[in-house]
Design goal:
The complex is a heterodimer of chains A (302) and B (440).
Chain A lengths: L7 E6 L2 E4 L2 H11 L4 E4 L12 E6 L1 H9 L3 E5 H10 L3 H45 L9 H5 L4 H13 L12 E3 L26 H9 L3 E4 L7 E4 L10 E5 L8 H13 L3 E7 L12 E6 L5
Parallel strand pairs in A: 1-5, 9-10
Antiparallel strand pairs in A: 1-2, 2-4, 3-4, 7-8, 8-9, 10-11
Chain B lengths: L1 H9 L6 H5 L10 H4 L26 H18 L3 E3 L6 E4 L38 E3 L12 E2 L5 E3 L1 H9 L4 E5 H4 L9 E5 L2 H8 L7 H12 L3 E4 L12 H10 L2 H16 L20 H8 L25 E4 L15 E7 L9 H9 L9 H5 L1 H7 L3 E8 L2 E8 L8 H11 L10
Parallel strand pairs in B: 2-6, 10-11
Antiparallel strand pairs in B: 2-3, 3-5, 4-5, 6-7, 8-9, 9-10, 11-12
EC number (chain A): 4.6.1.16
Organism (chain A): Aspergillus sclerotiicarbonarius (strain CBS 121057 / IBT 28362)
Protein name (chain A): tRNA-splicing endonuclease subunit Sen34
Chain lengths: 302, 440
C-alpha cells in the first residue's frame, strides 16, 4: 500500500465523483473513513455482484468532505483526458508504451510460471494417486497432501509480484500481455492545473448531519435500500454491521409522526437504531456540523 | 395478538426480512472471503464467496485491528488485480470520438467535437447505431453474441455502455485513436497503440449520448448477473416512447378469456338490469334470487379500473419514468439482428434527483407504454394471488442511490376482474384440499 500524493484528484465525470487509484481508495478509507461505493466489475470474477471493483464512486458529500479537509481536489476528468492526450509528447508516448510492454511481459511470465507450477502439482497428484493404488492393501492414511493444495493463491501471487517487480529481466517467453491500466497517470501528469479543477461539490441539505456523524467517527454509506439517507457504521463496513439508519431533517421542519413510527419500526426490524438529525439554524447560514443534534429512536420492548 | 408480529421481528428466522437479509450484495462484504476463491487457478471453480462474520462494534483489541487490516489488505489486493489480455485472446477496440465512420481510407475527420449530443439512430448509412463510439476489427469471444452491431467492413461497433462494460471486465482493450493523441503517423490504421485506461474510458464514455452513471450502474449490474440488456426506444429524453404500437398489437391478439366473460356479463346485465340506487329499495332488487352470484353481481355498483382498456391516445411518458432498457433472461435465446420480446422492461430513476414516488399519471403513462402482459398460463389460472401480483402490465423501476441500485416491479393489477364469488364456486368444484360433500 503506497501513500498517495496529496491532494488526491477526484474525477468528476458526468455528474458523479470517482476514484480510480487503488492507493487513493485504500488511503481515504483507512485515514479518513470514506468508503464510497465500489461500482466497477472485478476482472478476476466478473459475473457476480457481491464483490465489486474500481472505480470507487463517491457521494457528493464524501467528495466535499475530502476537499474541505484539504485531502483531495475535484478535477474535470473529461477535460484532463482530452487536453492531456492531445498534448502528449512523442517522447512520453514511447516511454509509456515501453513501460506497458515490460509490465505485460512481466505478467506473461508470472502466468506461465503459475501454469507450470499447476502442471507440476497436477502431475504430482496423479503420481500420488498411483502410488496409493499400488499399496491398496495397506490401511488408508489421512490424505493430508491433497488438503494442502488449497493454498491462498491470491496472497501468494501478490507477494511474488512485488518481489519480482524489482528484478528487471527481459521476459523469456517472447510475447507480452496487453494491459489496461486503471489510472491515466502515467502518461498524464498526476497533478492537475488550476483550470482543470472544479469548485466544491453541490451537496444536499443533509450534509451537516453527514459531516457531523462522520466527525464522530462513523463510516457512512448511501442507505436507500434500508429506507434511509445514510447507513452509519461504527467502524469499517468491511468488519462491522451498521448501527443507525440516518435521516436528516431541517431544524424547524414539521414532519408526520408516521415517519418516526415507520422509521423506528423498520430500524428495530433490522436491528438498527433509527436516527434523525439536523443542524440548528443560526444567524446567517445554516449547516454548521457542530450545531447538529441527533436523536435515535427504537421500539421499546416493555 | 398484537404482540405476535413484534415477536416475529425479534426472531427473524421466520420473518421475510431474513430473505432480504441474505442478499449478499446488500452490504459491504469482507474481502477476505474473496481470497478463498481459486479463480486464479482455473475459471471453472467459480463459486460465490460466503458471507463473513462481522463484529458488533470496534474495541481497542489488537486482534480486531489485525483482522481489520487483513480485510483491508485483501480488498486492496483484490482491487489492484490488473486487467490483462493474453495475445491469443486479445480483442482490440478503437475509440471513435466522432461516432461511426468508414475506415480511414474513405473519410477523414480532423475536427474533434465536444460531447456528442444524442443524435437519432438514422442517418449514418452504415447500419450501425449513431451513438456507437468504439469499433472492434477482430471480434472474438462470446460477448459479441449479444453486444454490438456489425458494419460493412466487418467491424463491430459498440455503444458507450457496451464498450465501457467490456473494458471494465477486462475483456476488451480499447485504444486511443491517432487523432486524439496528437501523433501524426501517416499509416492506414487509426490505432495509436496507446491503451485507454479505465479512468480514460470512464471520462470518454460516461455522459456520452445519454449514458448517465445511474444507467451504467444498472447496465453493468444486470450484465454481471448474466442478463442481456439493450437500449429501449425510450432512451432518449426528447423522443416519444415508440412502444405503444407494440402494445396495441398485443391487445388485439389476446382477447379470449376476458371477452367471453364480458359477453356473458353484458347478457346478464341486459336481462336483469339492476337499478343501482338505494333510494328506491335494496340494491339487489326485489324478487326471487336463485343464486348468490346474481346478488353479488347486482350489488357491485362501484366502478373499477380495467387495465386492459387502454386510453387512446396513450399518454406521454415523462422522463425518467420511461422504459430505457429491454432485459432478457439468460435462458431467453437472443439474436442481435432480431431481438425477441423482452422479458422485462426497465426504467432508471436517480434517487437523488427524484425523491418522491412517481405520480399516478407518470406511472400510468409508463405502464401504458409497455405492451399488455396478461396473467395467463397454467399456474396463473389456478392461483388468484399470482394473477393479482403479475398484473396486466408491468415494468421494473431501478432506483439508483449513488451507485446502489434497488429494483421495484410495478404491476397494473386488476382487482375488479377477479370475482371472488366466482372463485369460491370453482374452488368448491375441483379443489382437492376442500372436504367434499359426503354423498359423492
Amino acid at each position: 500500500m503506497d501513500e498517495p500524493t496529496l491532494p488526491i484528484p477526484i474525477s468528476y465525470i458526468a455528474g458523479s465523483y470517482f476514484l480510480f487509484s487503488i492507493d487513493a481508495v485504500t488511503y481515504v478509507r483507512r485515514e479518513h473513513h470514506i468508503c464510497g461505493v465500489l461500482s466497477g466489475t472485478l476482472p478476476q470474477i466478473p459475473q457476480q455482484n457481491v464483490f465489486l471493483g474500481l472505480p470507487l464512486k463517491l457521494m457528493p458529500e464524501e467528495a466535499r468532505l475530502l476537499v474541505e479537509k484539504g485531502v483531495a481536489c475535484i478535477v474535470d476528468e473529461v477535460k484532463v483526458q482530452k487536453d492531456g492526450m492531445r498534448s502528449l509528447m512523442e517522447e512520453d508516448r514511447k516511454k509509456y508504451l515501453r513501460e506497458l510492454e515490460s509490465q505485460g511481459q512481466h505478467a506473461m511470465r508470472l502466468q506461465t510460471d503459475r501454469k507450470e507450477q499447476q502442471r507440476e502439482k497436477a502431475l504430482k497428484k496423479i503420481e500420488e494417486k498411483k502410488a496409493k493404488a499400488r499399496k491398496a492393501e495397506q490401511p488408508p492414511v489421512a490424505d493430508g497432501p491433497s488438503e494442502g493444495s488449497v493454498v491462498d493463491l491470491f496472497a501468494n501471487d501478490q507477494g511474488s509480484e512485488t518481489s519480482r517487480r524489482s528484478s528487471t529481466v527481459a521476459a523469456p517467453y517472447g510475447t507480452a500481455m496487453g494491459v489496461t491500466p486503471a489510472t491515466s497517470y502515467p502518461p498524464l501528469p498526476y497533478e492537475s492545473s488550476a483550470e482543470q479543477r472544479l469548485a466544491l461539490p453541490e451537496v444536499p441539505s443533509s450534509y451537516p448531519m453527514f459531516a457531523h456523524l462522520h466527525s464522530e467517527g462513523y463510516f457512512l454509506s448511501p442507505g436507500l435500500r434500508f429506507g434511509c439517507q445514510y447507513l452509519a457504521y461504527p467502524g469499517d463496513p468491511l468488519r462491522f454491521h451498521s448501527h443507525f439508519l440516518g435521516v436528516s431533517a431541517e431544524w424547524d421542519e414539521e414532519f408526520d409522526l408516521m415517519k418516526i413510527v415507520a422509521g423506528g419500526r423498520l430500524g428495530t426490524g433490522v436491528k438498527k437504531g433509527f436516527l434523525i438529525g439536523g443542524a440548528e439554524k443560526t444567524e446567517g447560514d445554516a449547516g454548521d456540523p457542530s450545531s447538529v443534534r441527533t436523536f435515535s429512536i427504537e421500539w421499546g420492548g416493555m | 395478538m398484537a404482540d405476535t408480529d413484534e415477536a416475529a421481528i425479534h426472531m427473524p428466522s421466520q420473518d421475510s426480512g431474513m430473505h432480504i437479509d441474505t442478499d449478499l450484495s446488500d452490504e459491504t462484504q469482507d474481502f477476505r472471503m474473496l481470497n478463498s476463491i481459486s479463480f486464479l487457478t482455473d475459471g471453472s471453480q467459480q463459486t460465490l464467496p460466503k458471507r463473513g462474520e462481522k463484529d458488533f462494534e470496534p474495541n481497542p483489541t489488537l486482534f480486531q485491528a489485525d483482522v481489520l487490516s487483513a480485510s483491508r489488505q485483501a480488498m486492496h489486493n483484490a482491487l489492484s488485480y490488473p486487467r490483462l489480455h493474453h495475445p491469443k485472446t486479445q480483442v482490440i477496440g478503437i475509440f471513435a470520438p466522432n461516432g461511426p465512420a468508414p475506415p480511414r481510407s474513405a473519410q477523414k475527420f480532423d475536427m474533434i467535437t465536444e460531447e456528442s449530443e444524442p443524435s437519432k439512430p438514422a442517418g449514418t448509412g452504415m447500419g450501425v447505431h449513431a451513438d456507437s463510439c468504439v469499433y472492434v476489427s477482430n471480434p472474438k469471444g462470446q460477448y459479441f453474441k449479444s453486444i454490438g452491431q456489425a458494419d460493412r467492413w466487418n467491424r463491430i461497433w459498440l455503444l458507450p455502455e457496451e464498450a465501457l462494460y467490456l473494458l471494465e471486465r477486462g475483456t476488451l482493450d480499447i485504444r486511443w485513436p491517432c487523432s486524439e493523441v496528437g501523433c501524426a503517423d501517416g499509416d492506414e490504421t487509426e490505432d495509436s497503440g496507446i491503451p485507454m485506461s479505465l479512468q480514460a474510458a470512464y471520462a470518454a464514455f460516461m455522459g456520452r449520448s445519454g449514458l448517465t452513471s445511474e444507467r451504467f450502474s444498472v447496465y453493468t449490474g444486470l450484465r454481471r448477473l448474466g442478463y442481456t440488456i439493450v437500449r429501449a426506444p425510450g432512451w432518449y429524453d426528447e423522443e416519444e416512447g415508440a412502444d405503444s404500437s407494440e402494445s396495441e398489437q398485443t391487445t388485439l391478439e389476446k382477447p379470449q378469456a376476458p371477452s367471453l366473460v364480458g359477453i356473458f356479463n353484458q347478457l346478464l346485465q341486459w336481462l336483469y338490469r339492476p337499478t343501482p340506487t338505494t333510494a328506491l329499495g335494496p340494491v339487489a332488487g326485489l324478487g326471487i334470487h336463485r343464486s348468490y352470484d346474481n346478488i353479488y353481481r347486482s350489488i357491485s355498483i362501484i366502478p373499477w379500473y380495467d387495465p386492459t382498456a387502454s386510453p387512446s391516445p396513450p399518454p406521454r411518458t415523462t422522463p425518467p419514468y420511461r422504459v430505457v432498457f429491454h432485459i432478457y433472461k439468460p435462458s431467453t435465446p437472443f439474436k442481435k439482428s432480431a431481438p425477441p420480446t423482452p422479458d422485462f422492461r426497465l426504467a432508471v430513476v436517480n434517487a437523488r434527483t427524484h425523491t418522491t414516488f412517481p405520480t399516478s399519471s407518470q406511472l400510468g403513462a409508463l405502464l401504458e407504454s409497455t405492451p399488455l402482459d396478461p396473467p395467463i398460463g397454467e399456474k396463473m389460472s389456478r392461483q388468484l394471488y399470482m394473477r393479482l401480483r403479475h398484473g396486466y402490465r408491468n415494468v421494473i423501476l431501478a432506483v439508483v442511490d449513488e451507485g446502489v441500485v434497488s429494483y421495484l416491479r410495478i404491476a397494473d393489477s386488476a382487482f375488479g376482474k377477479e370475482k371472488i364469488y366466482k372463485e369460491k364456486n370453482t374452488r368448491g368444484n375441483k379443489g382437492p384440499w376442500r372436504p367434499r360433500p359426503k354423498g359423492r
